[in-house]
Every structure is written in C-alpha cells, then in structure tokens.
Hints:
- The protein is mainly α.
- It is built from eight helices and no strands.
- The chain has helices at 2-15, 19-39, 45-68, 72-86, 95-108, 110-115, 119-128, 134-144.
- The protein is globular.
Amino acid sequence: MIKQTIQKDQIVAMKAKDPFKVQTLRYILAQIKNKEIDQQVELSDGDVVNLIRKESKKLQESMTSYKDAGRQDLVDEDQKQFDIITSYLPKEISDMELKEKIKEIIDANADLFQKNPNAMIGLCVGKLKSIADSSRIAEMVRSWS
C-alpha cells in the first residue's frame, strides 16, 4: 500500500513538473524494487517502512557530515529529500506509549531480563520496530536496566 502511494505521488509530481520530488520518489521506488529482486518477493508495508527508515537515517547522517563541513547547500538538499521520504513513514508513538509497551515486553520476559538485560534490546526492537525507531527503543530499554 505504501509502495502504491509512492507510485501515485510520483505521477502527481510528474504532472506538477516537480523534478526534485520525482527524482526522490524514483530513488525510493528503485530501492524498493532492488530489495524485491534480491528477496524474490514483493515487500510488505513493514519492509517498505524499514527501508524508508534506513534511507532517512542515511540522509540524517549525511546532513550531519555536510553541516560539519560547512556545506549548507547540501544540507538543504538532503533536508528536502528527508522531508519527502519521511512523509511516508507512519507516525511514531509517544515516549509514554513506548515505555508502556517496553514494560509489557519486559514483564512478559522477566527471567530473561534478569539474566541478560541487553538481550531485551533485540527482543523489543524486533517487536516494536514498526511503531518506533530502533535507536529510540534501544535507548529506552538501556535506561530501564
């Protein structure tokens, strides 16, 4: 469904003669297609969301590098791409809701948490990565122990 939305938005951007948005959406669709070819299966919405998150993280890292190098023109360009790409991500849940979900997982796996609190990071990320950023989840789990 997300893939189809991106394809429709690409057509709208073409008709609106917005080359930057068309280029950005084509790039994302190409990344999706490459992943589908690699896995030989059509990606689910969850897989597409994960791919978009990875791409947005790459853009954030490059913006940081460009900012350190004093290249504001490149920062601005990446920021526009980031804004377009992240508009396809579902809204993340609040910190309070995320803490509640992590607490539920920890309570359900209390014995594992007592033995190895770091193992809970992988478990929580696996279950919650569709509703929150992985680094945010890991940070909250670390603060728990």
